[in-house]
Amino acid sequence: MNIFSRLESIVGPKNVSIEQADLEKFGLDRTNIYCSNPRVIVFPTSIDQVQEVIFLANELEIPIVPSGGRTGLSGGAVASKSEIVLSMNKMNSILDVNLNDCTVTVEAGATTQEVQEVATKNGLFYPVNFASVGSSQIGGNVATNAGGVNVIKYGMTRDWVLGITAVTGSGELLELNKSLIKNNTGYDFRHLFIGSEGTLGIICKVTLKLTEPPPPSSVFILGVSKFKDLLEVLKIFQSKLSLQAFEFFSDHALEKVIEAHGYPKPFETHASFYALIDFDNQDNTSQDDALKLYSECADKKLVLDGVMSESIAQSQNMWKLREDISETLWHYQPYKNDLSVRISKMPKFLDEVGSFIKKSYPNFEVIWYGHIGDGNLHLNILKPAALNKSEFKSLCDDISMNLGQLVESFDGSISAEHGVGILKKDYLKFSKSSGEISLMAEVKKVFDPKGILNPGKLL
Ligand code: S2G
Ligand code: ZN
What we know:
Blueprint: H1 3-11, E1 16-17, H2 20-25, E2 40-42, H3 47-60, E3 64-67, E4 84-87, E5 94-98, E6 103-107, H4 112-121, H5 138-143, H6 151-154, E7 161-168, E8 173-176, H7 189-193, E9 201-209, E10 217-224, H8 227-240, E11 243-250, H9 251-261, E12 273-280, H10 286-299, E13 305-308, H11 312-323, H12 325-330, E14 335-340, H13 346-360, E15 365-371, E16 376-382, H14 389-409, H15 434-447
Parallel strand pairs: 2-4, 3-4
Antiparallel strand pairs: 1-2, 5-6, 6-9, 7-8, 7-9, 10-12, 10-13, 11-12, 11-15, 14-16, 15-16
The structure holds (2S)-2-hydroxypentanedioic acid (S2G) and zinc ion.
């Protein structure tokens, strides 16, 4: 029996596809620089079927690429070497909401937005939030430890995972941490699987913690002329307000979003950088504090202009200026760097990166945005029309090598939230020692002895 009929005998004929459209679609994620070339797409509907597919892949020594919402930005879900793509699209149920434990248990294919909605429906809140929540899946969020815009207050996905049911590369079923709050029984493999990018096992089911809904919030957008002023503004606003987000974007980012969507400018004054501050505003008392803090920033000549939301609708519109950047830039085929350093090191770091780019690549259109509140900068270089994809990528790979050295000198990370995948693999050495990287390879062998899971990604 050939592999296709064997797969059909495991998952059923309607859950195996070699349709050209599916082979194209399910072999890619949002990293738009790779080609798709999977052998077959399978859609298991149960954990048993996931195990059977893994046993088969081990027997035939055919690699598997786990696939979720395919919103990744480092090529973690790309299948270009005739792999089996194992899609979690049909394992997407919300299995349980427990109001005593304040948890939700879902299959890996449930979207982030579905989790947010079921939490809200039950009077609770799932706080990990980012632009692609509508299509990104919880399994992928866990596999890449997704971050987003509220990390300053709520942390990363890692901070919300209580339990993981996963199938290892040898087909073993693991129930990690059993969703216990306290469980001190040695190594917590849950945390090994979070951020493992599909290289240790297939995440099939996740139990997430939920919390109480946040108070109403207001949004302040202000403009500064120098990046380092944003750090001063952060300190001043944090001194009195509880922040749910402290995001930033450059004037170029704002221009592109306004050009694409026709949104109004937050204010007329031009600024080189903008901060979007989302702060708790219980019973409307914090807006006065925010205005006082803004005047303090103005007295210190830190800000050029600012606007504060007067309604939920206005807050939502202001957020669009930040949340729509990623999808807007996608059309310019950007080369992305997703860098992080400790917050205290950001001003010097950005100045050094900015002057490096300006000196070495003056004609490149560079767009800055990201999450100042947690030390994460997104540097997007837009592909010039004159360059084809591979010329552009090799130029940008050179930039990444230099950026990697800079990140290393600042003890930073070459991938703050987007993961390593294929795109950042060559730069891992700037954030992890060779000893750490070989230990990671040893750990991979333990969980995936035949190396069939997502080979070529991360390591
Ligand atoms: C963001 C989303 C992905 C991107 O907007 O904060 O993490 O395009 C990004 O960089
Ligand atoms: Zn981000």
